What we know:
By secondary structure, this protein is mostly helical. It has helices at residues 7-27, 30-37, 56-84, 100-105, 113-123.
Amino acid sequence: MKTTLTPEQLAHFRGLLIERIARIYNEVHSDVRRDVQGGQLNQPDPGDEADEAMGIQLGDFKLTLDERSAKLAQAMEGALGLIKRGENWMCDEYGRAIELERRELVPWTTRCADCQEALEAETQERSPTL
Ligand SMILES: [Zn+2]
């Protein structure tokens, strides 16, 4: 099964993604910002955080946030890459088309609503971010 987005729709989602990526990069720690400014959008090395031994509780919380943000940003970059190549992104699980309404809510998603629901039930995630 294949669905094709119009150039207008692709441009729309591209805009959404760019806006969200910029917001995330402003929130994550400075290492990531430096990487972005250097043109490298790779995942940051979480090992760097181990140096900060003080304030364990706060540190753990921050690390969780950063990892989450990094994953989110990576997913957005991935979706943006597909749009740039003129490809529509499909559900990871079965290659089904991702619902348009779902893309609107989560433009970087790689799963259709059914698969995401199944995954959330499995992992007990508190908030659906992917
Ligand atoms: Zn699916």
